């Protein structure tokens, strides 16, 4: 406590600290979205989900967003004459929320050139396998069919390839002899949610630097 009559600098006003804005892309159950929504309630997390965009209506992820009071939009491919037009509409729908980072969390569509032109380098994706092995929509099934003993999850920067962008973080998950696609995926998803929440929070608080294929959390030396 000080008794000085000279007022010091005003205390930092939490409300005026710009929060890192997240838009989350979803296609299904939205448990990864749910984990981000749990995390964002803590101001120390440094990021807030400001919008959720889905490529299909009526999914549980949209209910989770609405329950949390987060605005949603649906941009379904079938409502557009071709992928390029859909991609432009998706870009616009995401752009409405002015995101700092876009998080594809169980989003089962590839974004296109318009989207990457605007949000490339600041869109991340989570994948339930250890990339570059087993990219694509059936990563868990493919890893199991191959007979791997260790799988896991990867958080990557989205580029024009299929789960091909620079890897930000990975964690391993052991494969059990009696695993099915469902049991292995559920076990991976427990780790995946924690990893995604951790990575996205660190991007918000520390930044992300990408040089070629090397992605690093933090601003990097000399920045
Ligand atoms: C996650 O494992 C994600 O990596 C994969 O689909 C799952 C989506 O889960 N592409 P949810 O919708 O977040 O529950």
Automatic annotation (TrEMBL):
Described function: Catalyzes the transfer of a formyl group from 10-formyltetrahydrofolate to 5-phospho-ribosyl-glycinamide (GAR), producing 5-phospho-ribosyl-N-formylglycinamide (FGAR) and tetrahydrofolate.
Entry keyword Ribonucleoprotein: no
Cited CDD domains: FMT_core_GART
Keywords linked to the UniProt accession: Purine biosynthesis, Transferase
Raises pKa of active site His, annotated site positions: 163
Residue ranges of every copy of the Formyl transferase N-terminal domain listed in the record: 21-200
Catalytic residues, chain numbering: 127
Keyword Transferase: yes
InterPro entries documented for this protein: Formyl_transf_N (IPR002376), Formyl_transf_N_sf (IPR036477), GART (IPR004607), GART_AS (IPR001555)
Name of the molecule in the record: Phosphoribosylglycinamide formyltransferase
Pfam family, one: Formyl_trans_N
Gene assigned in the entry: purN
Pathway: Purine metabolism; IMP biosynthesis via de novo pathway; N(2)-formyl-N(1)-(5-phospho-D-ribosyl)glycinamide from N(1)-(5-phospho-D-ribosyl)glycinamide (10-formyl THF route): step 1/1
């Amino acid at each position: 406590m000080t008794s000085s009559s000279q007022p010091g600098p005003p205390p930092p006003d939490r409300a005026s600290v710009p929060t890192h804005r997240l838009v989350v892309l979803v296609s299904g159950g939205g448990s990864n979205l749910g984990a981000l929504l749990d995390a964002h309630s803590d101001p120390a997390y440094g990021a807030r989900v400001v919008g959720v965009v889905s490529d299909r209506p009526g999914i549980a992820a949209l209910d989770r967003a609405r329950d949390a009071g987060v605005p949603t939009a649906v941009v379904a491919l079938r409502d557009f004459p071709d992928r390029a037009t859909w991609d432009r509409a998706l870009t616009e729908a995401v752009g409405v929320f002015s995101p700092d980072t876009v998080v594809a969390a169980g989003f089962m569509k590839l974004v296109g050139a318009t989207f990457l032109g605007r949000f490339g380098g600041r869109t991340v994706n989570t994948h339930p396998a250890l990339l570059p092995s087993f990219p694509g929509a059936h990563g868990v099934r493919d890893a199991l069919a191959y007979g791997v003993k260790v799988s896991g999850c990867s958080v990557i920067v989205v580029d024009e390839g299929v789960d091909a962008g620079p890897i930000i973080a990975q964690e391993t998950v052991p494969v059990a002899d009696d695993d099915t696609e469902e049991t292995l995926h559920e076990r991976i998803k427990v780790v995946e949610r924690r990893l995604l929440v951790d990575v996205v929070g660190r991007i918000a608080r520390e930044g992300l630097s990408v040089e070629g294929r090397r992605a690093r959390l933090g601003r990097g030396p000399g920045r």
